[in-house]
Amino acid sequence: PTSGIALEGAAPVDPFAQLDRDVAPIKVSKSVVDTPNETIQAKGLLDRALEAEATGDLDGAAEMYEKALKLMPENGAIAGRLAALHLVKLGHNADGVQYARLALAANPMDYEAALMAAIGLANMEKDTEAGEYFDLALSAPEPSSETLVSYSAFSEEKGDLESALMLLVRHEDLHGDNLD
Fold first, then answer.
1. In the chain, what is the straight-line distance between the N-terminal and C-terminal CA atoms, in Å?
2. pLDDT tens-digit profile of 13-65?
3. Which of 70, 122, 155, 175 has the most CB atoms lying inside 10 A of its own CB?
4. How many CB atoms lie within 10 A of CB 56?
């Protein structure tokens, strides 16, 4: 499992830290008159899911997000939120990967979903697949700090120290030398 890395004199880096950020509720832009019933129901479920999450009812939140996703299966944002919830807060790697893949199916350029899939697969020791998703996350026009640090930790864990170092150098070039 990728547990983060520590540079000499630095605290270990948590590759999940940025994945655990708040996600704004899905907004409904049409008027209620023009909005299909499924969308109205999904919006209510999303609001309840956010409330459940805020009060620590993570399983309840996941259940409501899943119901909303069934009503709006093309909504990659809901799938991405489920991926983050399962992977980061509930520790369910397989579910996190499943929802990250759904988010990527809705938006193949969802680099955060690619990172979540990579981390989940790495935690399940599915190294070849994890590497493919890390590569996808790395293909972002400007890869996130989390992507570079997580991929570096993964590479280091797999004994590819040269790649790990190159990723940290790229991190410094893009994001400075602070790994927080």
1. 20
2. 444 444 444 454 555 555 444 568 888 999 999 999 999 999 999 999 999 99
3. 122
4. 10
CA dist 112 and 79 (Å) reads: 12
Nearest to 3 by CA among 154, 144, 171: 154
- What does the pLDDT look like over 83-107, one tens digit per residue? 999 999 999 999 999 999 999 999 9
Spatial separation of the C-alpha atoms in residues 146 and 5, rounded to whole Å: 12
Is the overall model pTM greater than 0.70, yes or no?
yes
Residue 154, both tokens: 């993964």
Radius of gyration of the chain (CA): 17
- The residue assigned the tokens 């909303």 is 68
Q: What is the C-alpha separation between 68 and 3, in angstroms, rounded?
A: 32
